[in-house]
Amino acid sequence: MKILHTADWHLGKRLDRFSRLEEQILVMEEIIAIADQENTDLVLVAGDLFDNFNPGVEAVELFYKTLKRLSLNGKRPVIAISGNHDSPNLINAPDPLARECGIILIGHPKAEITPLDSEHFRILNSKPGFIELAIENIDFPVRILHTPYANEIRLKEYFGENKEEEINKVLSQTWQELADEFCDASGVNLLTAHLYMNKRGAEILEEPEGEKPIKIGNADLIFSDAIPEQIQYTALGHLHGFQNIGTKEKPVVYSSSPLCYSFSEAGQTKYVSIIDAEPGKPVSYEKKVLNNGRTLVRKTFSSVEDTVQWLTENPNTFIELTLESETFLTADERRLLYQSHNGIVHLIPRVKNRELTEQQSHEINLNQNIEILFREYFKSKNGGQEANEELMNLFNEILNA
Questions:
Q1: Which tens digits make up the pLDDT trace of 194-252?
Q2: What is this structure's pTM?
Q3: How far is CA 231 from CA 184, 224, 228, in A?
Q4: Nearest CA to 271 among 2, 5, 1, 3?
Q5: For residues 225, 135, 59 and 112, what is the CA-based torsion angle, rounded to 10 degrees?
Q6: What is the mean pLDDT of residues 126-139?
Q7: Which pLDDT does position 312 carry in this prediction?
Q8: Where are the alpha helices (DSSP H) in 259-365?
């Protein structure tokens, strides 16, 4: 059988003042096309379906339409779990209707999915945190251990007060008991979770810039050795770069977000994972590149002319732009930059060789002329930059108004 694994859609997310909805519509179309082209039998969406607990109408509509098309109107099961950006109750709310379309939405850890017997697949077994599916034209069952994200309150509810010590132990024990009961070599055995997971002893993986952190110290760090031996593939969500923290034989994969959502992801290629699986054998998986979405770029220039040329030649980007110069940028220069490109997210002016250290402070004489005081204040707040004539004219205009 073939499985598509995707995660971290963050529908409704903005980049500063820029909406990403049009890009998200295109990349959702791309994911649907890959699922169809690969003739996948099952889709797993590993959390962070939305970017916040109260997504806008357009984001919710895109979510439902995408899942319905991924499900081929009920022919292909789609299982989506909540992440740390999602409201579990919002994810659970449409489940009775979604199930009619072959979509299983799981908001809470230890959720027990009610029986389902559709035309194209049915739930053979269900326990808290586990479902077993029989899918049309697949000669073996598919077992899925599922663990959506749990916040501090829910962790204590599900795993006890001493969650810092217990979460790895409890997850490992819970997963192992389910695997021992259901996951023999006669079916395909999967785990999907939205957690901060890493290999024990490995370098700490950085969470995305601007992402709500899961890992606070090591309190919520789950080690991959908690995954039962029977599990053939683990579909993770949370980290936005594609990586396998497991082995070639038993992958533990972050599939990546479908778009670059912060400048810490600048230059990243985004993917979905296509898994080939059969009972009792190691799976194989392939990264499928996602091509839609504007590229995020961090660039530094030393002249306005070079900056304008690059901006003109690279229109389909979002850019964090640092401009090093001898003097503060004028209003005309700023206007020229923004007229050259509609995707400047941050413009960071930096004056060369004029950085003040914290030790370079002096007593302020408040009896000085207010214009001199303003010049010194501006210089202290802008890394040593001198207020130019245009700015001083504006200051005097306000002062004399």
A1: 998 998 888 877 776 666 555 544 446 788 999 999 999 999 999 999 999 999 999 99
A2: 0.84
A3: 10, 11, 6
A4: 5
A5: -60
A6: 94
A7: 94
A8: 304-313, 331-340
User: What residues form DSSP beta bridges with 319?
Assistant: 297, 344
With CA atoms as reference, report the closest residue to 344 among 272, 294, 280, 270.
Answer: 294
146: burial class by Cβ within 10 Å (0-12, 13-18, 19+)?
buried
CA-closest candidate to residue 273, choices 229, 234, 238: 234
225-230 contacts, C-beta under 8 A, 24 or more apart: 225/172, 225/199, 225/200, 226/168, 226/171, 226/172, 226/175, 227/175, 227/191, 227/252, 228/145, 228/175, 228/176, 228/178, 228/179, 228/180, 228/183, 228/191, 229/179, 230/179, 230/180, 230/183, 230/184, 230/189
Q: What percent of the chain has pLDDT over 70?
A: 88
Whether the predicted pLDDT of 383 surpasses 70: no
Cα distance between residue 175 and residue 147, in whole Å: 9
Question: What is the rounded average pLDDT for all residues in the chain?
Answer: 87
Please check the confidence at residue 46 and state whether its pLDDT lies above 80.
Answer: yes
The answer on pLDDT for 186 being more than 90 is: yes
Cα separation, 107 vs 111, whole angstroms: 7
Sheet of 252-254, strand order: 121-127, 130-135, 142-147, 188-194, 233-237, 252-254, 243-244
Q: Which of 270, 319, 324 is nearest to 293 (CA)?
A: 270
Torsion angles phi and psi, residue 160, rounded to 5: 95, 165
Cβ neighbour number for residue 79 with a 10 Å cutoff: 23
DSSP 8-state class, residue 78: E
How far is Cα 11 from Cα 66, in angstroms, rounded to an integer? 11
The C-alpha atoms of residue 329 and residue 350 are separated, in whole angstroms, by 9
DSSP code at position 208: P
Averaged pLDDT, 68-95: 91
**Is pLDDT of 180 > 90?**
yes
